[in-house]
Amino acid sequence: MIRIRVNPQVCVGAGQCVRTVPEVFDQRDSDGIVVLLASTAPDERLTYLQKAVKLCPSQAISIELDPKP
Ligand code: SF4
């Protein structure tokens, strides 16, 4: 399982995360700041989540592999 965290304080609303993993990330309608829809994801989504981390221009996303089921 993958644990996902976002830091809305540093998010600049670029939306790359939403385009990359839409089932995990959304943006507030008012200002585009990231909203986390799910704080965990199955391991199969790792490649996409790593891509979202890489594409985020403000390093607002962090992921961590949790060995527990
Ligand atoms: S990609 Fe980063 S900066 Fe852009 S909306 Fe997502 S968390 Fe915010």
Any descriptors?
69 residues; alpha+beta; Alpha-Beta Plaits; 3-stranded antiparallel sheet; 2 helices; 5 strands; 26% strand; binds iron/sulfur cluster
What does this protein structure show overall?
The protein is of the alpha+beta class. It has a single domain (2-65), classed as Alpha-Beta Plaits, CATH 3.30.70.20. The chain contains 2 helices and 5 strands; from the N terminus they run βαβββαβ. It has a 3-stranded antiparallel sheet with strand order 4-1-5, with helices on one face. Strand 2 and strand 3 form a beta hairpin. The mean pLDDT is 96. The protein binds iron/sulfur cluster.
Give the gist of this structure.
By secondary structure, this protein is of the alpha+beta class. Helices cover 22% and strands 26% of the residues.
Can you lay out the helices and strands and say which pair or pack?
Layout: E1 2-6, H1 16-20, E2 25-27, E3 34-36, E4 40-41, H2 46-55, E5 61-65
Antiparallel strand pairs: 1-4, 1-5, 2-3
The protein binds iron/sulfur cluster.
Iron/sulfur cluster (SF4) binds at residues 6, 11-17, 25, 27, 34, 56-58, 60-61.
Helix content: 10-25%
CATH class: Alpha Beta
Using DSSP, what is the number of strands? 5
Number of discrete helical segments: 2
How many domains, as an integer?
A: 1
CATH T-level fold name: Alpha-Beta Plaits
User: What is the N-to-C succession of helices and strands?
Assistant: EHEEEHE
Small molecules held by this entry? iron/sulfur cluster
Global mean pLDDT:
96
Strand content: 25-35%
Known CATH architecture: 2-Layer Sandwich
Read across the widest sheet, the strand sequence of neighbours is 4-1-5
Poorly predicted regions: none
Outline the biggest β-sheet: 3 strands, antiparallel
Beginning-to-end CA distance, first to last residue: 6 Å
The SS-based structural class is alpha+beta
The coarse overall form would be elongated
Based on CA atoms alone, the radius of gyration comes out at 11 Å
